[in-house]
């Protein structure tokens, strides 16, 4: 059990220091530390300026340790990392900084730096989430809802959160940070912030109201005030049950292929789970019908991304004409009348967002959507085939990313394994929803093509060794 901080965690006042002096003293350290974080979105572009949005003491800085909560905007110059749309001119980040006079050896890897001047002169600043004492404090805040400075903590009134659960940071690579408490709960800390309700909180709350058991129901959460628009606060953190005995769908698929095992039963069950989530979302949140203008706009956006990625990744250019036909078919489909019903969807569905429990049932997690996309786009109703296309691409990745296996599968066997999973997934989806995604071939192909184009850009910039995987799909989609 982590040691309880001696100061009361529920009565800490907001930071009294002048904001300009506080930020000026931290800026030299943040300039070096922030770009090295895996969740920092603006890699490769220099930070030119920091602006303080808010500062709150979660634990008084007069003690040791103290815990300082910051919302900071980082202004950058240069080209955006994602194309399109353009990255906003200044991203807002959530930081939780531990403050001590000296750092114990156990926290040496969490060091951010030593403050030379200003309100924190003489103190050491470090990543607070790596400190079990400070991580435990966050759970205490969530156990007792209410405001604190510019922050507000809320929880499900029916939830009883035990005190004193041991905290540990989850080391998996991701675009946010997560803490696990006693194998009972997981707290996701959103790092790159957008004003308004985060879908990762909004959609699980809606699914819980509908009684959908496929998604862990939110237990508690906290938000931060947005000075630019009080009606659109920042979603800062989400506490949910931790499915500690569940297995990651991505790893399961990789292991199955590497061992030469069939994965169609698991894919079929995952298709059913996906359909159940979509059905519950449709029952509790508004639906819209995509007509000719919406289909044309959707096709235009997909075409714009294709053209931008073709400029950035020369390997895509020979296939651009064939790929564009998928988007033209979508545009033509819209001209024939209403295309399809659109609703709220997961937005970034793949095998890594699915967990299989000991009973063989699947749960779906991480409803944030693609973090690189604007929040307004992530919250926009979409055809359900967007999620289906994401999962189909994930089966393709699982079949083509495996290292050489003992049974030495041929390229044809790679493709057959992926196709079998893809078909089983669609059959499972149809069994639960009554609608087979394959009966909408033009729409499904357009979304799968759009996803593969996005993957080409991502792999070219972040994982060049993986570029062959989406390029294989690009060649297939460009010729069918």
Protein traits:
globular; 20% strand; 480 residues; single chain; alpha+beta; six-stranded antiparallel sheet; Aminoglycoside 3'-phosphotransferase, Chain: A, domain 2; seven-stranded antiparallel sheet; 38% helix
What is the strand and helix layout of this fold?
Blueprint: H1 19-33, E1 47-59, E2 66-76, E3 90-100, E4 111-114, E5 124-127, H2 132-143, E6 146-148, E7 151-155, E8 167-170, E9 177-181, E10 185-189, E11 192-193, H3 199-210, E12 220-224, E13 234-241, E14 247-248, H4 249-258, H5 264-284, E15 288-290, H6 292-312, H7 320-335, E16 340-342, E17 354-356, E18 362-364, H8 375-378, H9 385-400, H10 411-433, H11 441-462, H12 468-478
Antiparallel strand pairs: 1-2, 2-3, 3-5, 3-11, 4-5, 6-7, 7-12, 8-9, 9-10, 10-13, 12-13, 14-17, 15-16, 17-18
Task: Explain what this protein looks like in three dimensions.
The protein has 480 residues and is α+β, with helices and mostly antiparallel strands. The chain has two domains: 19-241, no CATH class; 247-478, Alpha-Beta Complex (Aminoglycoside 3'-phosphotransferase, Chain: A, domain 2), CATH 3.90.1200.10. It is 38% helix and 20% strand. The chain contains twelve helices and 18 strands. Strands 6-7-12-13-10-9-8 form a seven-stranded antiparallel sheet. Strand 1 (47-59) and strand 2 (66-76) form a beta hairpin. Helix 3 packs across helix 5 (264-284) and helix 4 crosses helix 9 (385-400). The model is unreliable at 1-17 and 80-88 (pLDDT under 50).
């Amino acid at each position: 059990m982590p040691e309880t901080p001696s100061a009361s965690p529920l009565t800490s006042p907001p930071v009294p220091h002048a904001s300009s002096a506080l930020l000026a003293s931290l800026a030299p350290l943040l300039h070096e530390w922030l770009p090295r974080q895996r969740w920092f979105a603006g890699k490769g572009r220099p930070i030119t300026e920091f602006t303080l949005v808010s500062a709150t003491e979660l634990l008084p800085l007069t003690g040791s340790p103290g815990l300082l909560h910051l919302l900071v905007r980082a202004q950058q110059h240069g080209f955006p990392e994602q194309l399109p749309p353009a990255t906003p001119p200044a991203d807002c980040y959530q930081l939780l900084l531990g403050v001590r006079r000296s750092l114990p050896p156990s926290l040496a890897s969490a060091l951010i730096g030593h403050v030379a001047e200003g309100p924190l002169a003489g103190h050491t600043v470090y990543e607070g989430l790596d400190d079990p004492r400070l991580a435990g404090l966050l759970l205490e805040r969530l156990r007792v809802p209410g405001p604190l400075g510019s922050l507000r903590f809320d929880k499900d009134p029916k939830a009883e959160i035990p005190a004193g659960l041991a905290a540990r940071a989850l080391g998996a690579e991701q675009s946010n940070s997560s803490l696990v408490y006693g194998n009972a709960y997981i707290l996701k800390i959103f790092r790159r912030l957008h004003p308004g309700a985060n879908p990762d909180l909004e959609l699980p709350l809606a699914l819980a109201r509908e009684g959908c058991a496929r998604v862990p129901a939110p237990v508690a959460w906290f938000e931060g005030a947005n000075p630019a628009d009080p009606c659109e606060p920042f979603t800062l953190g989400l506490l949910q049950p931790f499915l500690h005995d569940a297995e990651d769908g991505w790893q399961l698929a990789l292991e199955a292929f590497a061992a030469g095992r069939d994965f169609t039963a698991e894919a079929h069950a995952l298709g059913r789970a996906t359909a159940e989530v979509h059905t519950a979302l449709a029952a509790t949140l508004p639906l819209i019908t995509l007509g000719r203008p919406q289909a044309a706009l959707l096709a235009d956006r997909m075409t714009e991304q294709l053209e931008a990625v073709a400029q950035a990744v020369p390997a895509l250019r020979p296939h651009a004409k064939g790929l564009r036909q998928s988007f033209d078919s979508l545009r033509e489909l819209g001209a024939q009348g209403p295309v399809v019903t659109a609703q709220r969807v997961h937005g970034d569905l793949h095998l890594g967002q699915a967990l299989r429990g000991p009973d063989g049932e699947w749960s779906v997690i991480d409803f944030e959507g693609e973090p690189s996309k604007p929040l307004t786009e992530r919250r926009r109703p979409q055809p359900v085939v967007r999620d289906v296309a994401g999962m189909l691409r994930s089966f393709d990745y699982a079949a083509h990313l495996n290292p050489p296996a003992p049974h030495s599968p041929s390229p044809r066997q790679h493709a057959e394994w992926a196709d079998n999973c893809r078909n089983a997934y669609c059959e499972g989806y149809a069994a639960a929803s009554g609608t087979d995604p394959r009966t909408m071939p033009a729409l499904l192909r357009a979304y799968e093509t759009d996803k593969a184009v996005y993957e080409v850009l991502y792999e070219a910039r972040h994982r060049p060794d993986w570029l062959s995987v989406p390029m294989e799909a690009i060649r297939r989609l460009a010729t069918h």
